[in-house]
């Protein structure tokens, strides 16, 4: 199959591109490179021996997205859009079998400071992408959603049937808004087939150590923050609150290896190929929560050194405890996470050790 991947050079996008290529699919990548590095896809190409046609574009640019979707090769020639749209509307085959949509801003804390930027980029960008997909006749989509749509859950583990509608931050609301748009679209037009993948907390890196998480500026997520302390880029790990109602007072999260997460996208893709006219939702998590202190201890085992920590005030938008009931994905997709916490931290350290300055090192 031929897959368009938005946010392709980002953390989850690059790992998913690699898994798609290794599964024999053809991929075209799109990214605006605002919060990612082109180098990630060069390394994917080296690891797989496959070429990834790449377009540097913002998904909010509907004209650019129409050209990409209609050209099918990442070239997006000036006259390609009109011809391709005409053939698709006349019953011809679209240039892409599916789109995997990762592009978007993703920092919980930042979203509370810059809500307009998150709504404009995440929601506005998705609307532009959907219009471009519809014009090109490409109506199969896997969306990178988030467990933040559940807000502060009444109980854990969290199943897909749990209430949504009260996320704790604008980032979560942007994901929930997009989910609702996609549900409405699938109801209104049965030609659409949509998968909503609610991630829990992706961590780790490809076992080669060649691609991994490389945040710009101060890391917003726990594991890259630990990694930068371990490699000497930062002096101390800040723990945002140790007074939560959890066993050790720190936040509890469902950490999932990024390779397991990427493989979940392939499983969802296979499912959607035979499931037209529906919008389905799956949690992607391990089904177990770990506290911040437990994650730090696992990283210390991986890197063989102590991680200095300091406890600071709680961060706006954070919740106490969040982990998945991933039974639906196992039953319907035949997918389950296979990496444990030690493996996640081992691969995260392997990436950071080989790339102390990230892709720029």
Structure description:
With 361 residues, this protein is an alpha/beta fold. The chain has one domain (2-360): Rossmann fold. The protein is built from twelve helices and 14 strands. The chain has helices spanning 11-22, 39-48, 62-71, 80-89, 108-113, 115-136, 170-188, 222-230, 258-273, 292-303, 327-333, 341-354, and strands at residues 2-6, 26-31, 54-56, 98-101, 140-146, 193-199, 201-203, 237-240, 252-253, 255-257, 279-284, 290-291, 309-312, 321-322. The protein has a seven-stranded parallel beta sheet with strand order 3-2-1-4-5-6-11, with helices on both faces. A three-stranded mixed beta sheet has the order 12-9-14. Strands 7-10 form a two-stranded parallel ribbon. The two termini are 35 Å apart. 55% of the residues are buried. Mean pLDDT is 93; it is low at 77-87.
Keywords:
12 helices, seven-stranded parallel sheet, alpha/beta, three-stranded mixed sheet, Rossmann fold, 361 residues, globular, single chain, 41% helix, 14 strands
Largest sheet: 7 strands, parallel
CATH class: Alpha Beta
**Strand ordering within the main sheet:** 3-2-1-4-5-6-11
Q: Tell me, what's the shape?
A: globular
Strand content: 15-25%
CATH homology-level superfamily = NAD(P)-binding Rossmann-like Domain
* N→C terminal distance: 35 Å
In short:
By secondary structure, the chain is an alpha/beta fold.
Compile the SSE list and pairings.
Blueprint: E1 2-6, H1 11-22, E2 26-31, H2 39-48, E3 54-56, H3 62-71, H4 80-89, E4 98-101, H5 108-113, H6 115-136, E5 140-146, H7 170-188, E6 193-199, E7 201-203, H8 222-230, E8 237-240, E9 252-253, E10 255-257, H9 258-273, E11 279-284, E12 290-291, H10 292-303, E13 309-312, E14 321-322, H11 327-333, H12 341-354
Parallel strand pairs: 1-2, 1-4, 2-3, 4-5, 5-6, 6-11, 7-10, 8-13, 9-14
Antiparallel strand pairs: 9-12
């Amino acid at each position: 199959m031929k897959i368009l991947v938005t946010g392709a050079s980002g953390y989850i996008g690059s790992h998913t591109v690699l898994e798609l290529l290794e599964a024999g699919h053809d991929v075209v990548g799109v990214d605006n490179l605002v919060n990612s590095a082109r180098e990630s896809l060069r390394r994917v190409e080296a690891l797989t021996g496959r070429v990834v046609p790449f377009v540097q574009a913002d998904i909010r640019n509907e004209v650019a997205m129409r050209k990409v979707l209609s050209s099918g090769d990442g070239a997006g020639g000036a006259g390609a859009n009109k011809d391709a749209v005409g053939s698709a509307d006349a019953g011809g085959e679209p240039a892409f079998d599916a789109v995997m949509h990762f592009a978007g801003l993703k920092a919980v804390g930042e979203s509370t400071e810059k809500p307009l930027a998150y709504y404009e980029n995440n929601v506005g960008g998705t609307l532009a992408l959907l219009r471009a997909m519809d014009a090109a006749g490409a109506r199969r989509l896997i969306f990178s959603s988030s467990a933040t749509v559940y807000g502060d859950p009444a109980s854990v583990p969290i199943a897909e049937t749990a209430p949504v509608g009260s996320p704790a931050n604008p980032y979560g609301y942007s994901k929930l808004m997009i989910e609702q748009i996609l549900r409405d679209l699938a109801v209104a037009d049965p030609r659409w087939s949509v998968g909503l993948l609610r991630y829990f907390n992706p961590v780790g890196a490809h076992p080669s150590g060649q691609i991994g998480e490389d945040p710009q500026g101060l890391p917003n997520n726990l594991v890259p923050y630990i990694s930068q302390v371990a490699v000497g880029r930062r002096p101390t790990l800040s723990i945002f609150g140790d007074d939560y109602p959890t066993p050790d007072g720190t936040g509890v999260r469902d950490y999932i290896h990024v390779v397991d997460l990427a493989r979940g996208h392939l499983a969802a893709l296979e499912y959607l190929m035979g499931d037209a006219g529906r919008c389905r939702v799956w949690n992607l998590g391990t089904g177990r929560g770990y506290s911040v202190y437990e994650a730090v201890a696992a990283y210390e085992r991986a890197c063989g050194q102590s991680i200095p920590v300091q406890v600071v005030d709680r961060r706006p938008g954070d919740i106490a405890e969040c982990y998945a009931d991933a039974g639906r994905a196992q039953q319907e997709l035949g997918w389950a996470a296979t990496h444990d916490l030690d493996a996640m931290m081992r691969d995260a350290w392997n990436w950071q050790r080989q790339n102390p300055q990230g892709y720029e090192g």
